[in-house]
Amino acid sequence: MMLFKRKPLSGKNYTLLRQKMVKNQLYDRGIRDENVLSAMKQVPRHLFVPNKLKHYAYDDGPLSIGYDQTISQPFVVASMTENLELKQNSRVLEIGTGSGYQTAILAAIAKEVYTVEIIPELLQKAQKLFQKLHYSNIRTKLGDGSIGWKEYAPYDAIIVTAAAPKIPKELINQLAEKGTMILPLIAGLYYDQILTKVKKSKQGLTSEELYGVRFVPMQGKVED
């Protein structure tokens, strides 16, 4: 993506850009969950990207956040969140804190969010932002997300923001009965990725393929 210099933006400008993003990129593309739309209107995405990229925070695309990681396209963030079918009392596990933006969106809707990040520098930056923005319902952990966070399981919803060749067994075990997991799975000879929605019941797992995506690979034991 080619980036061009833009004029400095004020807080009011960012608010207007955020409203425009929600209307044009989300609602017009079928996002209808009012809680998701409200969260996307409220959370200041520009604070979760590097300073040099703040002008592009509300553009229709992903952005680099360093360490070979990205902050996902706004539509993908909203769509993944909507597909989790969150309630106000939901407990959510996020694998891959990254910039912390997806975490903040979850925290604006759910009761509790537990997020795991494997890159120390990214987690430190996200933690500072969570404190600055006064999120009191987020717990963070540095570690291998592919093994989840067993201490606080089970979770009503699990969201994975890195592509895996299979659903990590530990995440399946930590998903509550009637819970929902959404994650990008690698498939095919060309390593295509399919965003997949998984539901858990007494009978086992059912999955639904949603659409093609492009995420960074999951790190950790899932690579073994």
Which structural class matches the secondary elements?
alpha/beta
Separate helix tally: 6
Number of strands: 9
Contiguous runs where pLDDT drops below 50 for at least 5 residues: 1-6
Helical percentage: 25-40%
Q: Which percent band covers the strand fraction?
A: 25-35%
- Backbone shape: globular
Distance between the termini: 33 Å
The Rg value, from CA coordinates, equals 17 Å
Structural commentary:
The protein has 224 residues and is an alpha/beta fold. The chain has a domain at 73-223: Rossmann fold. The chain is 27% helix and 28% strand. It has six helices and nine strands. It has helices spanning 11-26, 34-42, 74-83, 101-107, 120-132, 169-174, and strands at residues 63-66, 69-71, 91-95, 112-117, 138-142, 155-160, 175-187, 192-201, 204-213. The chain has a seven-stranded mixed sheet with strand order 5-4-3-6-7-8-9. It has a two-stranded antiparallel sheet with strand order 1-2. Helix 1 packs antiparallel against helix 2. The longest helix is centred in the first third of the chain and has 16 residues, at 11-26. The two termini are 33 Å apart. The model is unreliable at 1-6 (pLDDT under 50).
Provide the descriptors you would attach to this structure in a database record:
224 residues, seven-stranded mixed beta sheet, Rossmann fold, two-stranded antiparallel ribbon, globular, disordered N terminus
Which helices and strands occur, and which strands form pairs?
Layout (H helix, E strand, L loop, with lengths): L10 H16 L7 H9 L20 E4 L2 E3 L2 H10 L7 E5 L5 H7 L4 E6 L2 H13 L5 E5 L12 E6 L8 H6 E13 L4 E10 L2 E10 L11
Parallel strand pairs: 3-4, 3-6, 4-5, 6-7
Antiparallel strand pairs: 1-2, 7-8, 8-9
Helix pairs in contact: 1-2
